[in-house]
Amino acid sequence: MFKTKFIIAAVAAMVGLSAVSAQAAEAGATIERQNWSFAGIFGTYDENQLQRGFQVYREVCASCHGANLIAFRNLSEPGGPGFSEQQVKALAAEYQVEDATAEGGRRPAVAADRWPSPFANDQEARDANGGSLPPDFSVLAKARGVTDPFPTWVFNYFTGYQEGGADYIYALLNGYHDEVPETAPEGFELAEGKYYNDYFPGHAIGMAPPLADGSVTYEPGEDGVTVPETVEQYSADVSAFMMWMAEPHLVSRKQTGFVVLLFLVLFAGLMYATKRKLWAGIEH
């Protein structure tokens, strides 16, 4: 009896998961996983990519999207973009922040200040964006993600997959169409002021395509290597930077986790050896 109930429950769970997967597929196109440097249990951030991503964010995204959980000094912390303290101080000084104790209520920012919001309040942000409130970028890469069908998601626990937010953002930035494509759902009508996007839920997004080829000029690296100035490259760079903003201590967390796992393995071995020693002379 118990075995029959267990089988019925398992089948019901699989049907339910299949239904969820089907709904996710209807919501948008399949999001492909990108080859991120920070993927996997040993992955780390690419410092050069984070610096390029910060440039894209500053020159393109920051005009609408804030990052109020990020301080200027975070940019110089280990595992991040790798800016020097002098560079961070110079960068902060370019911005003005509100301070009731300062003359006129504003002063130049310092390294300890949070990244300034482009708008004074939410209503001003809505007025400037057709009624839509641009989301804050601080933890957006962790707030967004992808839905894997059963049983694919089971393997995520073993591969350490946590780049769903970055994959989604990359796909979103590359999913715009100049007009409604033939692949759009039957009967789909795009409202005025909206843009068609393959990956945005409902396909109608209020944000215009923010990136275009050549819109951001990258400086050659110290080794003289140049990076393509394309939408695909900009998208990858800013997605990686947003992942860092959402989890700036990802590398140290992975290192700590590896040390903890190693300790647990050694501790289990010691406990087993102790048990064998204690019970060696006792019949059982």
Automatic annotation (TrEMBL):
Protein name, UniProt field:
Cytochrome c1
Swiss-Prot/TrEMBL cofactor(s): heme c
Q: What organism is this sequence from?
A: Devosia marina
What does the cofactor field's note say?
Answer: Binds 1 heme c group covalently per subunit.
Query: Could you cite one Gene Ontology molecular function of this protein?
Result: electron transfer activity
Locate the transmembrane regions by residue number: 256-274
Keyword list (alphabetical) reads:
Heme, Iron, Membrane, Metal-binding, Signal, Transmembrane, Transmembrane helix
Binding, heme c: 61, 64-65, 207
Q: Which domain of life is it from?
A: Bacteria
Q: Does the keyword Iron apply?
A: yes
